[in-house]
Amino acid sequence: MLPLERPDDKETNRRNDRRPVRNMSEPDKTVNENSEEGLLRERYGLAMERIRRIPEEHFGAPAFERYFSSAARFLLMMEETAGFLAEGGPEKATVEELARRNHLLYADILPVHYEESYANPQYAAKELGEELGPLLCCIYAQLRDMIGYVYDGTWEAQVICLELFVQVYTLFVYEWKESGRLPQGEAVRQICYWSVCDYAEETGLREIRDRFTREGNRLGIRLLRESDLTDVRYLYAYGEYVSENELETAEFLAGLDEDTVALMADTYTEGFRMGFEVAGKDLSQKKTVLIAYRLGFERMLRRAAENFEKMGLQCIAPRGYGFSGGDVNRQYEYDHREDRAIFLDRNYVNRRLEAAHAAFEKYAREVRQYAGPAVVETFGRRSFDPVMKPQALRLTDRQNSLWVEYRSRSGLMTREYIPQEEYSFTIIAFPVPEIGPVFRELFRETVRINTLDYRLYRDVQQKMIDALDRADYCEVKGMGRNRTDLRVNLWKLSDPSRETIFENCVADVNIPVGEVFTSPVLKGTNGVLHVTRVFLDGLEYRDLSVVFEDGMVTDYDCGNFEDPEENKRFVKENVLFRHETLPMGEFAIGTNTTAYVAARRLGVEAKLPILIAEKMGPHFALGDTCYSHEEETRVYNPDGKEIVAKENERAALRSEKPLEAYFNCHTDITVPYDELGLLTAVCRDGSRIDIIRDGRFVLPGTEPLNKAFGESK
Question: Are 540 and 533 within 8 A, CB to CB?
Answer without folding.
Answer: yes
